[in-house]
Every structure is written in C-alpha cells, then in structure tokens.
Write a structure and sequence with these properties.
GO molecular function: acetyl-CoA C-acyltransferase activity
Order of helices and strands: EHEHHEHEHHHHHEEEHEHEHHHHEE
Protein name: Propanoyl-CoA C-acyltransferase
Helix content: 25-40%
Keywords: Acyltransferase, Transferase
Strand order of the largest sheet: 3-2-4-7-1-8-11-10-9
Enzyme class: transferase
Strand content: 15-25%
Radius of gyration: 20 Å
Structural class: alpha/beta
Number of domains: 2
Number of strands: 11
Pfam families: Thiolase_C_1, Thiolase_N
Largest sheet: 9 strands, mixed
Shape: globular
CATH class of the largest domain: Alpha Beta
CATH topology of the largest domain: Peroxisomal Thiolase, Chain A, domain 1
Distance between the termini: 21 Å
Length: 414
C-alpha cells in the first residue's frame, strides 16, 4: 500500500565556479547540510540516489560514483543507485527516492546531485552538453534545428550568426529555434524574453546561493552579447558547479521528527518526450496534467514555481505548458508582473537556472531546495507570502523538438 512521502531536510551549496572543489567534495557538503537540516545522522539514511552527468567524461569516474562519495563519508552498506538523466538527473533521483519510500522499501532516503562543469578547457565544457542529445543522429538533428529555426516567415534573422554550437552549448540553438517558433506563431518579442531575464536577476540578487547576484535592466539584457537570435548571453544559464540534496521519509518518520518543518510530496512524475513536431502536445503539458491529477490540484492552486529556464524562452514556454497562462501568453503574463515577487504567481524566486546557475546534475534538487524553504517561510526578502503549494519542473536532454526527459514535483506545506 502506498503512503505519503515528506521532505524533511534539504541542503545546497552556492552554485558558482569552483576550481578547487570536486564532484565529491561538493556532494559531501550538500549532504551534511541536508542531514543538519533534517536533524538526522548518517546512520539514519537507508538508501541513496546520486545524480551526476559529466564526472566520467571530465575525470573518468564512471559506474560507482555515488558509492565513491558516500563510502568516503562513512556511509556504507546502504543501497546506492546512480542516476543519469541529463539536466533532469537530480529530480529523477528525488523521484526514485520518493518511489522507494512510498512503496515501503525505505523509511528514509537521500537524493543528491553534484556536478562540476567548469574546466580550463572551455571547449570541453561546452561540447559536453551535446552528449545529452542523440549523437548517432546528431548531424540530422543539427540540420533540423537550422532548417526549422530559419524557416519562419515573420522572423528576420540577423546577418552573420555563427553555426549551431559554435562557441556555445548546442542547447542554446535548440531554445532559439523554439523561441523563433513562438515569435512567429504568437507574436512574442525579444523584449518579453529580456523582461523574464531581468526579473530572474532581481530574484537572484536576493538569493545568497545564486551564482549571479546582480540585477540587470531589460535594456542591459538586450544589449548583452548575442548568442543565437533572439537570445543574448544574459538570457542563457551560465556554466558552473554545485551540489544540492534532499532527504525524504515516510509519514511515520515525519510525524516523529515534527511535521512543522516537513513538506509533503503531493506529486512526483517522471516522463519521456515524444516524437512530435512543434505544434504537437508538449511533454510539459502532458506531464503537468498527470502531476495535477496525482496531487488533486490544478494550476490555480500553485503559489510559486521553479521551472527549467536554461534560457528565458524556457521559462516563457514552461509558464504556458504548466497551465499558468494560456498558450502564446507567456511573455505577456511575465510583462504584467504576475511572475515577479509580489505577483500572483512568482516564478523562479531562486533566480532560476539563468541566475542561480545550472550544474546540470544538481539543478533539479536546487529547485526543490528553494520550494521547501519557501513553504517553510525561510526565504527572507524573496519570501512568497502565504506560500503553501509549489511546483518544480525540471527538463533534461533533447531529442527532436523537446526534452528527452522531464520530472515534475508538486510540494505542499504539511
């Protein structure tokens, strides 16, 4: 018989560039913070799920990554599952931890994500992202991005734009393609994307764990270096390192520790993208419906959301497919102030991937860290008043025109 699952501890180090840190040292810091937050000891953890994507590529550590980290901490004998699901790895780790507890296999489980992407070899860092696509079909995929991204009749592209992936992550080209489609079909604008980015810089400036903590005006965002039209550098998540963790438990354990700090996992949904065109049903739309049904809630019940804004267009798109506003209105909705702190539905109060940072194996749990703190009322100047329900959407990889994987969690104040 399934049971309720609660998050009782979270931990995150500030996302940033850390030349002296390793995947292991960052993970250990986040785990210690989560244990301290939960009021638990290492011996209380019964299972662990570790998310990482690039450790093998950068330092040749494959296969037993989680065991390497936990054994060094004195956490042995427990089952450890290594999770790799591109940018959705950390939220997938949480999904698996919740599934184990809900099924009764564990009473207390740890989800941890840690990633180090910065490198002296910048080309290596940028090219790593391409491995989150179908490499066997890579040339055809790039050809599709170029052809579709330049086929919109209502969009005038700037002259001299460099080839996809040249000096940037190939994902920026995939997002640019989606943004151009949205501009062509709905009339959205580059200014709307800049407004979303400026809003996230405001939120990030209030978050001590954010990689970027300076504000940027809409004009400054638009004037920043061009990446792939309509995206400028400020609209794109930075390269960085970091780790985040969450501890989940059964209802019996949560009651024993005190429900005052516990946050209930009302829904945890994991899914794969489909073979569709840009006008087909989006993975986010499909999975959000599943999450709302599981939680017995709807978009209007959500008080705040963390969505996957690897670019500003990512946030605009997810705002629509999560059901927070009608299709085509994501930019208008953001411009109205609705998604800014103090608005009707603050989005990415952490600063989002654009400002909080995006060490991809850890990003999903950073979203959870933010929502848990918000539901506890611990976010100080960026606190969402009266927050009781939060949604986290975390996408990973790219096949065709959408994410290869996605996790959606809905968290509710206990």
């Amino acid at each position: 018989m399934s049971q309720n699952v609660y998050i009782i501890g979270v931990g995150q180090i500030r996302f940033n560039k850390y030349p002296q840190e390793t995947v292991r040292t960052m993970a250990q810091q986040a785990i210690e913070l989560a244990l301290q937050d939960a009021g638990l000891q290492k011996r209380d953890i019964q299972a662990a799920f570790f998310s990482n994507t690039f450790w093998g590529m950068f330092d040749n550590q494959h296969s037993i990554r989680g065991q390497v980290i936990l054994r060094r901490m004195g956490m042995d004998k427990i089952p450890v599952t290594n999770v790799e699901n591109a940018c959705a790895g950390a939220s997938t780790a949480l999904h698996l931890a919740c599934t184990g507890v809900r099924a009764g296999a564990h009473d207390v489980a740890l989800a941890i994500g840690s990633e180090k992407i910065t490198s002296d070899d910048k080309l290596k860092s940028l090219s790593a992202y391409a491995t989150c696509m179908d490499l066997e079909n890579f040339e055809n995929h790039i050809k599709m991005i170029v052809e579709v991204g330049s086929s919109f009749k209502n969009i005038s592209l700037p002259q001299g734009e460099s080839a996809p992936g040249q000096g940037r992550s190939i994902f920026m080209d995939a997002y640019a393609m989606g943004a151009r489609w949205h501009m062509d079909r709905f009339g959205s604008t580059q200014e709307q994307l800049a407004h979303i980015c400026s809003k996230n810089h405001l939120h990030g400036s209030l978050n001590p764990l954010s990689q970027y903590q300076q504000t940027m005006s809409v004009a400054e965002v638009l004037a920043d270096k061009a990446v792939a039209y309509p995206l400028t550098r400020a609209m794109c998540a930075p390269v960085g390192d970091g780790a985040a963790a969450a501890i989940v438990c059964s209802e019996a354990i949560a009651k024993k520790l005190g429900l005052g700090r516990a946050v209930r996992v009302a829904a945890s949904v994991l899914g794969q993208g489909s073979d569709r065109d840009l006008d087909g049903e989006d993975i986010g739309e499909r999975l959000s419906k599943q999450a709302y049904a599981a939680a017995n809630l709807g978009p209007k019940d959500i008080d705040l959301a963390e969505v996957h804004d690897a670019t500003s267009y990512g946030e605009l798109h997810q705002t629509e497919v999560m059901g927070f506003c009608p299709p085509g209105q994501g930019g208008v909705y953001a411009m109205s102030g609705a998604t800014t702190l103090g608005g009707e539905l603050p989005i990415n109060t952490s600063g989002g991937l654009e400002c909080r940072g995006h060490p991809i194996g850890a990003s999903g749990l950073a979203q959870i860290h933010e929502i848990v703190q918000q539901l506890r009322g611990q976010c100080g100047p960026r606190q969402v008043a009266g927050a009781r329900v939060g949604l986290a959407e975390n996408g990973g990889g790219n096949i065709g025109v959408e994410e290869a994987a996605m996790c959606i969690h809905i968290l509710q104040k206990a």
